[in-house]
Amino acid sequence: MTNLTPFLKYLAELHKPVKLSRFITWGVENMECRLHCGACCIAPSISSSFPLHPNGKEAGERCKNLTDDNLCKLFGKPERPKVCHDFKATEWVCGSTAIEAIAILNELETLTR
């Protein structure tokens, strides 16, 4: 995996203080979500309250609504957090594997704090 840090820092500066989910999809074509990946349910923090997370979720904390096979129990339900609903998979964020996705999302989380 190439070092995305300079590019991600550039994007973070361009879009401060815009939340991560807002700038991920700007000008980038979405891809099909990689089923059983779960990176977007583990790496980012979520500040809003939602089922099983009354105080939100810390970055790196596995969402308690993620099944053992990394599928969201809240998918398609109104109680799913807006940030999760708004997130759209893109290749530059999700990489080509779940491990790459975790690494990229961790870096984005750090850059957008």
From TrEMBL:
Source organism, top-level taxon: Bacteria
PANTHER family (alphabetical): UPF0153 PROTEIN YEIW
Protein name as catalogued: YkgJ family cysteine cluster protein
